[in-house]
Amino acid sequence: MKNYISGVLLIMMLITSSCATRGIHDKYMGATEQRLITQSIDKLIKKLPEKDFSLLKGHRIYFECYFLEDTESLKYAKKRIELELIEKYNGTIVADTESADMVLHVFFNAIGTDRDKAGLKTPDFFIPGAGGAVSIDIITLDMYHGISELYYYIIDRNNMVITRGDKVLSIVRTDKLAFPIISIPINTLD
């Protein structure tokens, strides 16, 4: 009976110590995070609908991007879209709306990374010299995603909205399945 109770307590401890966390960073923590963001932006731009953006072909375009904060990611995305407008649509970027044939407003809902971890692990414990609490993965899924999402308005020179684009979403992932001793990559960056 003691073994049964001990077994039940151990199983209950493992179940109650399962985790699901989400981490969002303000600064780029390393090359993987930078690649997740830039690849998600590049993938997002490739998904922009041709039927809407072909309206800009050969025109003078005033172009502006909006996000909650003026971040380096936003500057990267803006320059990347600007170069796409020049190269793919033969547009000319102009500095003000008065000299533009068309105006493009791009609103970003997300530019960044998410890190999620879900599964079973040991409760946190302390090992002297480890620098804080540690735990051991029993079986967890560690998900690291670069996410970009936008929608846009294309306006003609008479300030008439020609189109309001649907949301376009891009997610780039690098996930792994973690066990006590090893971790197995499920998908990786290109």
Question: What can you tell me about this protein's structure?
Answer:
The chain has one domain. It has 4 helices and 10 strands, in the order H-E-H-H-E-H-E-E-E-E-E-E-E-E. The strands form 2 sheets. Strands 1, 2, 3, 4, 7, 8, 9 and 10 form an 8-stranded mixed beta sheet that branches. A two-stranded antiparallel ribbon has the order 5-6. Helix 2 packs parallel to helix 4.
Task: Label this structure with key terms.
elongated; 190 residues; 8-stranded mixed sheet; 4 helices; two-stranded antiparallel ribbon; 41% strand; alpha+beta
Shape: elongated
Total helical elements = 4
What order do the helices and strands follow? HEHHEHEEEEEEEE
Which parts are unreliable, with pLDDT below 50 for 5 consecutive residues or more?
16-25
- What is the first-to-last residue Cα distance? 54 Å
Number of strands: 10
Q: Main sheet?
A: 8 strands, mixed
Which secondary-structure class do the elements indicate?
alpha+beta
Radius of gyration: 23 Å
Average pLDDT taken over every residue = 86
Q: How much of the residues is beta strand, in percent?
A: 35-45%
Give the proportion of residues in helices. Answer: 25-40%
What is the total number of structural domains? Answer: 1
